[in-house]
């Protein structure tokens, strides 16, 4: 099986981790930005809502763009979102940064799965998709403890700085190691809203 699948798994892990990485340090965020704990909790809620809504829509709007190019562009948006989050001077700016990160991450998860299935032989497609999904699952499990450790040690901005560094490494890896992957046949938005039975994510099927 193509070893680049593991690169896509790492990317999916990095992208997936950003949703819950502040889950254990919401009190630090609230204290620093002068908001209630409930308002800080909305940073996770808005991420989840944006992720769910933007995934199928962005997949439809970008269906005709070559996959490697689109992945790098989307990673840059994801990078910007996390840089803004790390430097946020206010709750409002951090809230906006979470929306940007969520929208870009929803498309990146789809792209990782699609590219993993494309670069391997047909016999390995299910395995490749499963491996990439393991990256997402691992990020959900490890996001909170990693954020908790970094946040308590270096402040609540530290997890976002770590994500920023990992995103830069992901961009480098995709640019140098991935080959071009042709765009998918563009389907209707209705079809894009159908969840894939194999992955559980919204994919163009």
Question: Gist?
Answer:
The protein contains 8 helices and no strands. It has one domain (4-179): Up-down Bundle (Growth Hormone, Chain: A), CATH 1.20.1250.
CATH-wise, what's the superfamily?
A: MFS general substrate transporter like domains
Q: What characterizes the major β-sheet?
A: none
Note poorly predicted spans. Answer: 195-205
CATH class: Mainly Alpha
H/E order of the elements? Answer: HHHHHHHH
CATH architecture: Up-down Bundle
Q: Briefly note the structural class of the backbone.
A: mainly alpha
Proportion of helical residues? over 70%
Question: In the CATH scheme, what's the topology name?
Answer: Growth Hormone, Chain: A
Number of strands: 0
**In one word, what is the shape?**
elongated
- Counting H and I runs of at least 4 residues, what is the number of helices? 8
Could you tell me the mean pLDDT? 90
Q: Which band does the percent of strand residues land in?
A: under 5%
The CA-CA distance between the termini, in Å, is: 23 Å
Q: Which value, in Å, is the CA radius of gyration?
A: 17 Å
């Amino acid at each position: 099986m193509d070893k680049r699948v593991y690169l896509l798994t790492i990317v999916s892990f990095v992208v997936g981790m950003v949703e819950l990485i502040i889950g254990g340090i919401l009190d630090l965020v609230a204290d620093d930005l002068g908001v209630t704990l409930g308002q800080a909790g909305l940073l996770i809620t808005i991420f989840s809502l944006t992720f769910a809504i933007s995934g199928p829509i962005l997949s439809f709007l970008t269906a005709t763009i070559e996959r490697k190019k689109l992945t790098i562009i989307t990673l840059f948006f994801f990078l910007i979102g996390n840089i803004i989050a790390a430097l946020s001077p206010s709750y409002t700016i951090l809230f906006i940064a979470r929306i940007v990160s969520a929208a870009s991450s929803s498309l990146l998860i789809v792209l990782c799965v699609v590219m993993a299935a494309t670069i391997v032989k047909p016999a390995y497609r299910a395995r490749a998709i499963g491996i990439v999904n393991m990256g997402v699952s691992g990020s959900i499990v490890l996001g909170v403890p990693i954020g908790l450790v970094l946040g308590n040690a270096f402040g609540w901005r530290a997890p976002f700085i770590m994500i920023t560094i990992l995103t830069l490494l992901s961009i480098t890896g995709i640019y140098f190691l991935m080959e071009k992957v042709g765009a998918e046949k563009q389907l209707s938005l209705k079809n894009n809203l159908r969840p894939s039975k194999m992955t559980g994510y919204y994919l163009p099927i």
